[in-house]
Amino acid sequence: MAGVRRRARKIDVEDIIRVGRAIGLRQLSLNAVAAELDVSTAALYRHVDGRWGLELVVGESLLSDLALRDDPAHDIERHLLSFGLQLRAFVLTHAGLGTYMQTLFPRGEAGQRLMVSEVEALVRRGYTPDVAVALASAVASTAINFAVAEEAQLERISGLQQQRDDVAERLSADERLGEAHRDLPEFDHEGFSTMVLTATIRGLLAVGPVGRPLHEVVVDLGSTGMGLQ
Questions:
Q1: pTM, whole model, 2 decimals?
Q2: C-beta neighbour count of 47 within 10 angstroms
Q3: What is the DSSP letter of 73?
Q4: What is the C-alpha to C-alpha distance for residues 41 and 32, in angstroms, rounded to an integer?
């Protein structure tokens, strides 16, 4: 007697996104999603274009949850700092999202919406769209990179403090670095990120003030590095 053929389970993109979000971008894979949905990986290929396509639908779904706040009372410096800190905080609550954004941002519609929102906020403050894109991209990249580095440390939290203590002890004993190292203030991750983001933004605004054309900004920055490579 012929065996009974198992009817293939029907899935759609929403099923893939739901399961992908539950797995998280850090652990996301075609095999993991297929196993959770009880389908073959071939079934996923009917809806997403391989690993890149899977990351895209899940990553953009996560980014669609982020609504950037823009306080009209903020000047440009505080606005950009708020933008960067909002990105950092959101990335840290979604493991693997930082690496997704670090690879390519914006990659899809949700990321593009965030960039449009930020560019429009800078245009309202006097920037031309091209300079606004450059500023937003630079701040976003810095904030994302900080979040990815922080996430990597949190993944290896066991033994991290001992490593820090060992490094601090070695630096303190160095006759050239010891005194300077002892005088350095201590910051938590958020405090350090805020300080460096602020310094980065002040540098960006110094070279790219409202009204300066983008090509002048690029030439100015490029000339500094001439002959150093």
A1: 0.87
A2: 16
A3: T
A4: 9
